[in-house]
Structures are given as C-alpha cells and as structure tokens.
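Recall that a protein's primary structure is simply its ordered list of amino acids. Everything else, from secondary elements to tertiary packing, is in principle encoded there. The following example makes that idea concrete.
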Amino acid sequence: MSDKILKRIKELRKIIKKHEYNYYVLTQPSISDQEYDIFMKELEKHEEKNPQLITPDSPTQRVGKDLTKEFKPVEHSVPMLSLTNTYNENDLWDFDRKVREALLENEKVSYVIEMKIDGASISINYKNGYINSAATRGDGTVGEDVTANVKTIKSVPLKINSNVKVPFPLNDFIVRGEIFMDIEGFKELNEERVKNGKKLFANPRNSAAGTLKMQDPKIVSKRPLNIFIYTLLLNNSNKLQTQEQNLKVLKDLDFNVNPNYKMCENIDEVLDVCHQFESMRDSLSYEIDGVVIKVNSIKQQKIIGSIAKSPKWAVAYKFKAKQEFTRIKKITWQVGRTGAITPVAEMEPVFLSGSTVSRATLHNIDEIYRKDIREGDKIVIEKGGDVIPKVVSVITEERPNKSKKVLPPKKCPVCGSEIYKPEEEVAIYCVNSECVGQIKGKLIHFASRGAMDIEGLGEALIDLFVEEKLIHNFDDIYSLKNKKEEIIKFERLGEKSVDNLLNSIEESKTKPFSKVLFALGIRYVGSGAAKKLADYFLDIDKLINADEDKISSIPELGPSISSSVNGYFSNDINLKVIESLKNYGLNFKEEKIETKGSFFTEKTFVLTGTLIDHTRESAGEEITNRGGKVTSIVSKKTDYLLCGKNPGSKLKKAESLSVAILNEKEFKKYLEK
C-alpha cells in the first residue's frame, strides 16, 4: 500500500465528515447527493482493499453488518429524569415561585428556554473521543442498548471534534438528546410504504421511536432520523457553570444543538418566549409539543434538587393541542370486547399533529346529541394529548340543508343481534357474546401489554386470524404452534416473524395468575381488581365457586365487580376455555406467602435507585405479598427506604428523618426468611 492511498483515505474521510456536518447539522449542503455518493464509494473501495486501515470513526462504519438479536438492558449512571408537564401560565408562575423559595432571598435566577422536540430520548456515552454506547431512556434508570442504530444517524458524530479546547477532560462523558424524524422525511417514508403496500406510520414521533428499536441497522440507516443534543454530563469533573455554556460547548464539539433557545432573566420574559415559540410551531421542519424551561445556573440546579422522577429546576410547558377543520362523511358503529357499541366519525382525511387522521371516536349517543354532531357536518378536531383524535365542535353555519339527527342502531351493526341499554349507563350493548366484534376486542385485550403481553399479536394479525378462522377463543392462541405452516403462507408473514410470534405466545405462559385473570377481560375487573382477587382467592377454582357476598367483602371491590365476576364464571363456555388454558400451562394459582410475623408485615417501604436483581415493580410486589406497604413519598411514617444504586433525593430525606436504610443484599435476605 502506498502513502498516496493512505493520504487519499484520510482526505476522503475528512471531506465526507465535513459534508455530513454541513448537510445534517448545519442544514447547508455544499455538494449534491450524487457527489457525496461518489466520495463515499471511493472510500469504501479503498477500505475494502485495505481493511487494516479501517477506523471506528470512518463514515463507512456507521452501519454494522450484523443484526441486533436483542436490545440488552443498560443501567444509566445518571438517571434520565422525566419533566413535570404544565399547561397554563399560572403553573409557570408557581414554578418560578418554588425555584426562588429554594434559593437565598433576592438571589438572581435566569432561565434557558429550549424547544421540546417530539421524539425519543437517548443517552450516548463517549470514551476517548469515540462513541462507545447509546441507550434509550427506558424507565429512567435502565434503558436498552441501541448503539448500532444510533451510529447510523449522520448528525451523531462517531468521533468528537478534537480541535476544540475546553477547560475539562473529555475522555469519558455522556450526551443526551432527542432523536426525531422531520415532517418531510416522515411524509416521504409513508409515501414509500404506500407504494409497497405496507401499513402507514402514525406520526413522526412513533416512527422515530419504532425505527430506533429495529433489529437491522441497514434499514435504520435508510430512515430519515436526526438528533438534537441538549445536555453534556461529565463523569470525572464538572466545570460547566450554566446550561447556556453546556449548549455552546456541545455545539463546538460538532453536536447538533437546536439553535432555537433563549436566555430569560425573569418569568415575564419566559412567558413571552413561550408565546413566541408557539407561534413558530407550524413553520418548523420538525414537530415540537412545547418548551422546556431550565434554571440556567448548574450550581442553583443542584441546590433546588429533584423529586423521585423529575428535576425541580426544570419544567415542560405544553402547547395547546393543534386543531384542524374537516368534514364527517359518515358515522359508523363499532363493537368492543364488552359488547359496547361505539359511534365513530369517518372523516375526510386531514393532517394533524404529525399524522393523517380519518377516524375519531364519538364515545356514545349522548355525546353526539350534546354536541349535535351529524353526517356531512364541518367539524373542528384535535388530538387529546396530541395522540387521540376527538371532535371539539361543529360549524353549524356550514351544515348541509337536509342533514338529519343521528339515531342509534336498532340491531348490532356487526352481527345483527339484539341490543340493550342498561338504565344506569349511556352505552348500548350487543347481547351476542359470539359477535365477531366482541371476539376480536377480547383477543386484542388478552394479548395486550398489560395482560398476557404477546409481542407481535396486534390488532391487524388478530383480525386476520379471526377472519381466517384460526382463532376464536383465548385458548386457540396457544394452538397456533400447530398451524405454523398455514400461517407462514400469509402475505408479509415470514418464517422468522412467525417463530418470534410463537415464542412470545409460549413465554406468555409464565405470566402470574393476576395477569391471566385480567387478560380474561371480565367486565369491571381491571388490573388492580384482578390482583386483589388473585391475592385473596389464590386459586381460580376457589374464585369460580365464590358467591357475590364473598367477592364483595374484599376491600375496594363492590357489588358491580362481584356481580360481573359471578356472572362470568356462571357461563359454561367461559369455564370450558379456562379449563383448556389450564391444560396449555397458564397460571391459575397464586403462591401463598405467609405474612404473619414476617419482617415486612404492616411496615411501610419507599424505593429509590436502581436494583440489580429486581425491578421496582417486582420488589414492590415482593413487599406487598408479604404484608408490607409501598408508598412513593418518604415521611415520618416510613419504616424502611429500600435503596439501590444512584439513589435520588429520597435518600437525603430518609437520612434527615432517621428512616432505616435497606440495601438490596439485606432485602434479599429478608425475602429468603
């Protein structure tokens, strides 16, 4: 290999990095896409012939060759706290008051206002100047390793700008930001999916989050992902004085920092900037759903501190939901898992908050009458929480002349059966438990995350399986393993995706009795009621044989639940399905733990930090199963603080109140006893 080739490789890397920075960070491309591709192909050719010269920061190394088989858990060395949301100006005045109360009297406070990007939070670790790992937010303490996918994002530097001089070492540090998909890129992606006959993505935020969890980095590299970085965390020393300095250093290091941030000297200026940023919302190339207000001084941030999940020195001010005009083409009625028949507005498609909307629930006939909604009406719609479309109002002045009031259906719109309306309810119901609408709804609920959590078995697949008569009841799901060859023949269902689905179905058999009970979809029995029933009866057979008085005697379970449970288990079809599920190996018994005289009995616990062998949820269940109580706030009534790694402000609070501190090793010993 000649020196000339080595020199050319270095030159090509420098050229490509420069143009990637210009295009993806500065959004000021200086060459065409074709010219960029020519440079990249030349570099790939040289590296292919001289693989010993490939470096981790070479532009060719953004896309890994191997599939990501699983996203391993990553414990955040510094928790990724979520922000408290506010929706009105009075909340901001209250935030400012609390900030000042935490500091010395008359101490000056300034704020940095940043746009709140609607995307997926990410934490990226750099070591010796190179990207080392990247993890999703997860639950704030433990995320998932998505390093290979993050490396494909061209606005993420594989190596920091080493020419920048900063007053602290940068051999080991973390940056945090928001991965997003701009609006134009999102539209183009959906247009491509339409051409290929694939399901459309709902909005840019979901598209970004979903892309980040794909197993093939090569596919991720073709998606229009971008990133804005807003925080630099130094492990060894922190000489950053302010958040404003933080943003400037990040920009100098070639990170993509959103240029739209403002310094404010008081809360009046903060409110002005909030209004200014909200007015810019529709002119931006990416989605924002509010602003983030941070105390500028890092020293003051530390004094003000944090609560369990949120910093007290920062707050998110959410903008009002976007609204659009459209017209109702038709009002249809759909049947849910309980038999409830719900009106739906089928609308002229309109783009709203990042996605095209064509349907909105109207809830019930009383809601239709209250807002006087009719077919053909011009309406105002918005997304509640920027997620669920809803009809806000009707423009009656533009109503068609011959419009008629909506009447409820006289028969079930799906199966044609009789319907009924309980006196105490506004909803109407289909009486036929074998109605296809109910069957699909029940199966969707059974497979959902809060129930059996069968990954891959979503609404579209359940619709297909029901229509093809592969499944009808819950137990049919567990017989799908015998129909693999038949399932693989369906379009877009390859052998690998079918294997993943069948494995997920098999894994669901390990769910505890309380989850299985909730999954059955008994009316009025939510996850909390299911847990109480499982803890009390410990066995499905005891619950089946219990009368209404016995069930309603359980604290917080009233006559509605007891009547519904009793009625469900009086149905022979339901009992037959439960017997079949037992034979497939699902859990219908809860292990009884003796709580009398237990270390945990009648004691109150608070949890903080990251536990190694438990999640917070599982540790809490261990405590409550043994007669203890778990709360979220440390007080004089707290008996023990269960403390993991990187505890928050709860530890200081517990120490100040002389609350006993329990580490995980001690906790496990008490569990064994």
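The chain has six domains: 3-62, 85-318, 323-409, 436-510, 513-583, 604-672. The domain at 604-672 is CATH 3.40.50.10190 (Rossmann fold).
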